[in-house]
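[Meeting: bench + compute handoff]

Bench side (C.D.) handed over the final construct sequence. Compute side (W.E.) agreed to return the predicted structure before the next meeting so the bench team could plan truncations. Sequence as handed over:
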Amino acid sequence: MELGIISDTHGLIRPQLFQLLEGVDHILHGGDLGSVDLVVELEALAPVTVVPGNTDGFDLRDRFPEVQRLELAGMSVVVTHGHQLGSPSPDNLGPAFPEADLIVFGHTHIPLLEEREGRWFVNPGSCGPRRFARPVSLVRATISDSSGFSPRLIHLDQPPS
């Protein structure tokens, strides 16, 4: 199963995002979407699981739960923006969601791919407007029986390797 993991679009879907997410089976969005209309655009590629972030309005907060739990290819997945925990990190997300094999979050705009004791913590960074000097990025990942969870950080502001 191929996943596209994005966050912090803040109302901007960059054109190259569609090319980079082509062929994914599911998209996980870690919040600060910016507009419900972006969900429709992303759904043209694959099913989307989204959570609202701290900058999202009530239209998104009323429509989507703050935390989404799902199972994908045998993995227990939690998607949250993480702002409820202050500054989200594996140290506070792990205890908050002990059942999860994979925790996807956003908020910090700082990409993170970290495995701890067989559990994955993934912040794809921001793929929306550039914030501060942080990269514009997303994660593409594979879940399989043979290799488990294999994430790859992709910088949108650099040529693909």
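W.E. noted at the follow-up: The chain has four helices and ten strands. C.D. will use this when planning the next construct.
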